[in-house]
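Researcher: Let's do a round of design. I'm pasting the structure tokens now; please hold your answer until I've finished.
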């Protein structure tokens, strides 16, 4: 899902976007010397295992020379992947299905963050601790169609008339709109990042997680490749994904070392925020519940099918192949042939 992490200039707190904001989309197709991974947005705690794998030489041991690229916006990775400009992309489950609905031959091969991070966030004094309290409130979002559908689903689940809630497109200014009082709540911030940052600012945020208020669960971040790459270079994909898995397993064993690797590669990031975010996200990097014991990166096919049905029911996708074959566990440890 598209991230809208922004500088909190109003409170003099930087998210260090400036260091990562330059365009880097002009990337040549892979040569024998390297493999390109494009992040979904600027480096942050969600990518801690990527940088840990790099620091520990996991990719090199797998015979890969991995270059990490940063997009200028979250819509770039899948577009560049489909065009053959990059080899691997980190994106979002709904974006994968939307891309496939457009006929782009991409497929998710590993779940990097296995729970929804997108949330409805409000400040403590607004007293919005459950969806029913959204009645009569102003909710800011970035104008993303499936986030609009999230809000409608949440309101219907809570028996709140949609007309009683004013939805306002604030673009990328989610947090500033919340802090300025332009909106009463925002939909699009992450519970492991913006909410933590607001808590560190003593704003006492209330968080409503998507999968707790009526929206079907989904994988927030996934690793994506072209279908042709999976067909013709499955060994490369397998080596990449399993090296990445070792990076995240290392973070689980020693989160502080993982944060150090992230900060060493991205020194402009706020250490306090990254440490808190990694700690909060750690369990979401691994299968849990009925999937506990599955290998890192596990993509629950029943979950993908259910989320796909929700997208179809909300008229976000219509192509049957958008869901069928959108994800595979074939390259994960102990899977495939």
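Researcher: That's everything. Go ahead.
Model: Designed sequence:
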């Amino acid at each position: 899902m598209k991230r809208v992490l922004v500088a909190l200039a109003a409170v003099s707190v930087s998210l260090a976007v400036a260091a990562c904001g330059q365009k880097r989309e002009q990337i040549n197709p892979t040569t024998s010397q390297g493999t390109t991974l494009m992040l979904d947005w600027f480096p942050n705690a969600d990518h801690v295992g990527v940088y840990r794998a790099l620091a520990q030489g996991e990719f090199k041991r797998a015979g890969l020379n991995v270059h990490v690229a940063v997009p200028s916006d979250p819509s770039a990775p899948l577009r560049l992947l489909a065009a053959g400009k990059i080899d691997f992309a980190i994106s979002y489950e709904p974006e994968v299905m939307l891309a496939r609905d457009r006929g782009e031959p991409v497929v998710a091969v590993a779940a990097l963050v296995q729970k929804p991070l997108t949330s409805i966030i409000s400040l403590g004094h607004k007293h919005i601790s459950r969806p029913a309290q959204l009645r009569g409130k102003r909710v800011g979002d970035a104008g993303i169609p499936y986030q609009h559908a999230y809000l409608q689903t949440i309101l219907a689940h809570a028996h709140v008339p949609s007309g009683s809630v004013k939805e306002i497109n604030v673009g990328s200014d989610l947090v500033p709109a919340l802090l300025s009082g332009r909106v009463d709540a925002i939909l699009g911030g992450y519970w492991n990042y913006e909410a933590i940052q607001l808590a560190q600012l003593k704003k006492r945020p209330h968080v409503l997680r998507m999968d707790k208020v009526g929206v079907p669960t989904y994988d927030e971040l996934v690793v994506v490749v072209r279908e042709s790459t999976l067909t013709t270079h499955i060994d490369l994909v397998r080596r990449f994904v399993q090296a990445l898995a070792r990076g995240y397993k290392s973070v689980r064993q020693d989160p502080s070392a993982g944060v150090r690797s992230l900060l060493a590669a991205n020194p402009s990031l706020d250490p306090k925020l990254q440490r808190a975010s990694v700690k909060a996200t750690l369990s979401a990097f691994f299968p849990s519940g009925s999937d506990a014991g599955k290998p890192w990166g596990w993509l629950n096919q029943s979950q993908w099918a259910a989320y796909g049905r929700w997208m179809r029911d909300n008229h976000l996708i219509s192509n049957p192949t958008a869901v069928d074959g959108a994800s595979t566990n074939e390259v994960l440890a102990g899977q495939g042939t």
